[in-house]
Amino acid sequence: MSLNHLISIRDLEYREALLLLDTAEQMAATQSRRVKKLPTLHGRTVVNLFFEDSTRTRLSFEAAAKRLSADVINFSAKGSSVSKGESLKDTALTLQAMGADAVVVRHSSSGAAHRLAHAGWMDLPVLNAGDGTHQHPTQALLDAMTLRRHYKRNPSDPDVEPLAPGTDLKGARVVIVGDVLHSRVARSNVDLLTLLGAHVTLVAPPTLLPVGVENWTCDIEYDFDKALATDPDAVMMLRVQRERMSAAGGGFFPSPGEYHTAYGLDNQRFNVLNPECIVMHPGPMNRGLEISAEAADSKRSVVVEQVSNGVSVRMAALYLLLATEGNTND
User: Fold this and answer.
1) Is 149 annotated as a binding residue?
2) How far apart are CA 136 and CA 28, in angstroms?
3) Domain 5-135+308-323 in CATH 3.50.50.60
4) Domain 137-306 in CATH 3.30.950.10
5) Is 137 annotated as a binding residue?
């Protein structure tokens, strides 16, 4: 892989996206063994630099690095020098001086990961674990990995051959619903899924769509039921990011009840889905708001599988950035 960082899906070419997904499948195959740890990154140090709260993403990156035998340093802005006013630049210089080999960064400001990677403060690979409302590339990759498995084959059927390397998502129909305005997951998924050949439809009220969304490589729909009538292969429900809404003064929809009625995957909508349509969610879920308990806990829900695939995807990203020829820092 020619990339030195993983900042945005838009930095990836088609072949690079497929290489990441194929490598993630190889990593997933090793995780069924009794001993899951690989010696690949032995002696390397990965820093998880999290300026924004996270559970799934931080733990997933930590598990991925440790399963590749890397040492992991977890850095939280709370209680650190950052809370005392240390700049991003000084933090970067500190990490370089400590001998880190790669930095995983999550930040509330859009563009922070790009700044860290390209400002010249350090010479380390940077993996974006989510920056503001901009991008979350590994989330999109794990979503694509999950969708690819279900769209191209049934992973629960042991008689079906594994995915062939280079398998894309041509022809898949994906409906992404909810708080698109505040969602880096939506942006990254539109970029990646369409790159791989899928057809994506965004569904949201006008107040939860960003300026310029008409220029994205997807369709826009305001009527959830109309979007479901297209017989999608996957429905991805986005978390309603009430913390960002509160910071912006609120007023994005009349009430939680009205939002659920118009844009929630309730039992009625869930029951009319094609039996082969999978239900996705980046988590954490607001049950009863964007998704019903029945839909979240059904056999067609792949939310837990997404979490599992996240470890494999992040193992693949770390491997390709740190362990392959041309991407080492030795």
Assistant:
1) no
2) 21
3) no
4) no
5) no
